[in-house]
Write a structure and sequence with these properties.
The chain is about 45% helix and about 20% strand. The chain is of the alpha/beta class.
Length: about 850
């Protein structure tokens, strides 16, 4: 028994899209069948049913309404699935046999375009990887903006996946020859859709996107990406931009681990935006500016001239505060041009997109005026890149009403006066509507039915409606033909009304069709300007970012750093930009960082919670800000240019891959030592604490010695192994510093100040006390510490007998002490202040003080 023709059609399409969930359009629903239906019903939490398909058993089926399809496809894409949309591509009334259907769109995690499905402040990158003998080549694109990039790197899978995670890519395209197994360890912890695609051909029309690239491996990598995009989108992609090529030497490289540890774009624990460098810097007023800012945070510059150009722009803005505010206000009028252009190219734009485009273009002359007023060459170069595209702007303003509807298929968005033909058709339609008003009044008068009204729906057209309460007034001589009975009314038609309906609906349909055609003309005109509009969008994005740098610098008292050739770091009163912002009204304790050419390693000691990690991160973030072209949080700063930043901060197990904290730590140390150069920065925090004390100390010392002798880059190394501080006498490029803390009446006070030399105490027990560990435990720890300090070793300290260290007994003792304190509190709470004399009060206070001294002495 064969399947029905419709099911045969479905199966014929499905065989070409085996790894997609196929949404098959049937009337007002998209339906899924067989395994797709079983999977989709589970993931979308919709009812699984069945459909007769010509077999003995019904085939599994589920469906969703056509008007809600975006909601359901978005849910599937978020879970990493790919979706193929099948539509009817011919008019059912003209079809001979079954209606023709085709896949008209493919949606994957990396090709989302619909507004609302992607974060406006983030790119949605799709990547394609190729490999040569000694390199990985990663091409990536944001389809919503048309931006294309290629980055190359040494052939190390850690570097490759670090780059993919840095981009927060959602989909990776590989060739069938690529060894997918090497990615498996990373896919356990990072959600990434893998798509296999072998075609690397670049169609002739798109070769101009990579004209300046002659490396065959690079061309192959981009070819795989572009052919996959064309295959899945099934349309021309006019908005795709020329490829930007990133060699690993052209930007400051920050691996994904360091991006996380430094909390550049999301916080470590909560994965929030607030509390990150991006959050602190994002004073941008356009979505494009925010995305460009995030790209620059992850890829700071290494070109000294480009960086200093940005410094001078920011300085000019700081010198002209009023212009800075003017520029910000003008930029606020700019919509997300990059994504509007993407929707125009895709054919998804509506009339509102065109009005947003025109309003954005209207702001350009004012923005250019501010830039031209700055007397700054870089500002002038940005202004010159901003084409006003005035003809397009004026055309849109003359054509589209101020607040158009979202739909472009129901009319109502073209201005009167734009098209004489449309005005004439609409006049006929208006005449028809006036006739309806007149007809309604005439019928009320003729019949005496005061609440009679004329209505319309798509099924019955125009009708006369009479309420149930007035039905006894309807007479045969009125000539009313009953059409529909409702609970509260009856609906009728007349030959005269039906005749006029043809004219009115005909005019309305004609005007809607013409409005749509006029819209398509406008959209085509905008599409011809895409290269100009994209260059404008880039210049506006950079202007917005640089103005944000100025805003941040002015608001938080940042200074312009000096970039020096020598390997010399000198930061006076530096501050952690994010911590300072989070403190708000509290005073941030500033610290210097001084590392001349003879100092490569700062060995940092000091108690927990004193600020060692903050001090280390502070330096890294200051370098990132400086190489982005932003001012830095300090009174003065001079810095060399760095090529890479590596960090090992914090401790966590990698449970999914079965790696302990210590194993993760050693792998990250290996990665840094293997890839760092003399121009790199390394931050190592508490290396060795995940293993036995002497093992950890030995490893920490060996790592310091290795880095000192073989890499000779700038390193900040924090440690609790105070024994390592003697290395200052052994290693010429190492210097001790410590974070100051002091004791005050048995309590620890963190001063958060970094000074030269090693610390003499760790204050670990004081920190435990701050964490409110049991007093008995704290007292025991102090006893052990005294023995350790007396004997200079751990092995000779033996556990005390149960009588001396019985926590159960100690807790009883603790409760007894608490009761004594409570008796003192009760004594004070029973005092009637209004009745006690000064002398009695002094005597009572003296008694209380003596009692507390007695309790503390016994404790």
């Amino acid at each position: 028994m064969s399947y029905t023709p419709m099911m045969q059609q479905y199966l014929e399409i499905k065989k070409d899209y085996t790894d997609f969930i196929v949404f098959f359009r049937l009337g007002d629903f998209y339906e899924m069948f067989f395994s797709d239906a079983i999977l989709a019903s589970k993931e979308l939490e919709i009812v699984l049913t069945g459909r007769d398909a010509g077999q003995e058993e019904r085939v599994p089926m589920c469906g969703v309404p056509y008007h809600a399809v975006n909601l359901y496809t978005e849910k599937l894409i978020d879970k990493g699935y790919k979706v193929a949309i099948v539509e009817q591509v011919e008019d059912p009334s003209l079809a001979k046999g079954i209606v023709k259907r085709e896949v008209i769109k493919i949606i994957t995690p990396g090709t989302l375009m619909e507004e609302g499905t992607i974060d406006e402040k983030s790119n949605n990158f799709i990547c394609s990887v190729s490999e040569s003998v000694d390199r990985y080549l990663l091409a990536y694109s944001d389809l919503s903006t048309g931006q294309n990039f290629i980055v190359t790197m040494p052939k190390e899978v850690e570097l490759l996946f670090s780059e993919i995670m840095n981009l927060n890519a959602r989909e990776l395209i590989i060739g069938s020859e690529f060894h997918q197994s090497i990615l498996k360890p990373y896919l356990d912890t990072y959600e990434l859709t893998i798509s296999v695609h072998d075609d690397t051909t670049i169609p002739f029309f798109y070769r101009n996107l990579i004209l300046d690239v002659y490396d065959k491996d690079l061309i192959k990598s981009f070819g795989r990406l572009i052919s996959y995009l064309l295959l899945t989108q099934k349309r021309e992609l006019l908005h795709l931009q020329k490829v930007q090529l990133f060699e690993s030497s052209t930007y400051l490289r920050i691996d994904n681990n360091s991006k996380r540890n430094l909390e550049l774009t999301e916080t470590l624990r909560a994965q929030n935006r607030k509390g990150t460098l991006f959050w602190m810097l994002d004073e941008c007023v356009t979505a494009m500016g925010s995305r460009y800012l995030k790209q620059n945070i992850l890829r700071p510059l290494v070109d000294k001239e480009m960086i200093e150009n940005r410094y001078h722009f920011v300085a000019s803005m700081n010198d002209h505060f009023i212009l800075q505010e003017e520029l910000k206000n003008h930029l606020k009028a700019v919509y997300d041009l990059e994504r509007i252009i993407g929707r125009l190219s895709f054919g998804n734009a509506n009339a509102k997109d065109l009005t947003h485009l025109a309003r954005s273009l209207s702001a350009v002359p004012d923005i250019k005026s501010v830039l031209n007023s700055l007397d700054n060459q870089y500002a002038l170069s940005l202004s010159l890149r901003m084409n006003e595209v005035a003809d397009l702007k004026e055309r849109i303003y003359s054509a589209i009403v101020e607040n158009p509807p979202l739909s472009i298929t129901e009319g109502g968005f073209i201005k009167a006066g734009y098209s004489k033909e449309l005005d004439s058709i609409k006049a006929d339609s208006t005449t028809g509507k006036n006739w309806l008003d007149s007809f309604e009044a005439q019928e009320r008068e003729r019949t005496g039915i005061k609440k009679l009204k004329i209505g319309y729906n798509r099924v019955f057209g125009y009708y006369i409606e009479v309420s149930k309460g007035q039905m006894d007034q309807v007479k045969d001589e009125f000539g009313y033909i009953r059409k529909q009975t409702l609970s509260n009314s009856e609906r009728f038609v007349t030959p005269q009304l039906k005749e006029k309906e043809q004219q009115i609906i005909g005019s309305l349909d004609e005007s809607i069709k013409l409005e749509y055609e006029l819209f398509l003309e406008l959209r085509d005109m905008a599409n011809h300007e895409i290269p100009q509009l994209q260059e404008l969008a880039k210049a506006l994005s950079e202007t917005d970012m640089l103005n944000a740098f100025s805003t941040v610098s002015m608001k938080h008292r940042y200074v312009m750093p000096s970039l020096v050739q020598e390997k010399h770091i000198n930061i006076v009163s530096g501050r952690h930009p994010v911590v300072e912002r989070l403190l708000e009204n509290e005073v941030y304790v500033a610290n210097d960082v001084s590392m001349d050419e003879s100092t490569n390693i700062l060995l940092i000691t000091g108690p927990n919670m004193s600020g060692k990690s903050t001090y280390m991160r502070q330096l890294a973030l200051t370098i990132i800000l400086a190489q982005m072209g932003c001012f830095v949080p300090a009174e003065k700063a001079s810095l060399p240019l760095f090529d890479q930043i590596f960090t090992r901060i914090g401790a966590s197990d990698d449970l999914t891959s079965g790696k302990s904290t210590f194993m993760v730590e050693m792998l990250e140390v290996h990665y840094a030592l293997q890839n760092a150069t003399a121009s790199s920065l390394i931050l190592f925090d508490e290396i060795g604490r995940g293993t036995a004390t002497y093992d950890g100390m030995a490893l920490a010392q060996a790592i310091i010695e290795y880095a000192h002798q073989t890499i000779q880059c700038k390193i900040l190394f924090s440690t609790h192994y105070h024994e390592l501080t003697y290395l200052e006498d052994e290693l010429k490029s190492l210097r001790n510093v410590h974070v100051v803390a002091k004791e005050d009446k048995g309590n620890i006070v963190f001063l958060h100040k970094v000074q030269n030399g090693p610390t003499d105490k760790s204050y670990g027990i004081h920190v435990a006390k701050l964490a409110h560990l049991p007093s008995a435990l704290i007292r025991r720890a102090k006893m052990i510490l005294e023995e350790l300090e007396k004997n200079h070793g751990y092995n000779i300290i033996k556990p005390q007998t149960i009588d001396l260290f019985n926590f159960e007994e100690a807790m009883v003792e603790e409760e007894s002490i608490e009761q004594e304190y409570h008796s003192v509190i009760d004594q004070l709470s029973n005092v009637a202040i209004e009745e006690i004399t000064p002398l009695k009060a002094m005597n009572l206070l003296s008694d209380v003080i003596e009692e507390i001294k007695r309790i503390k002495h016994n404790k």
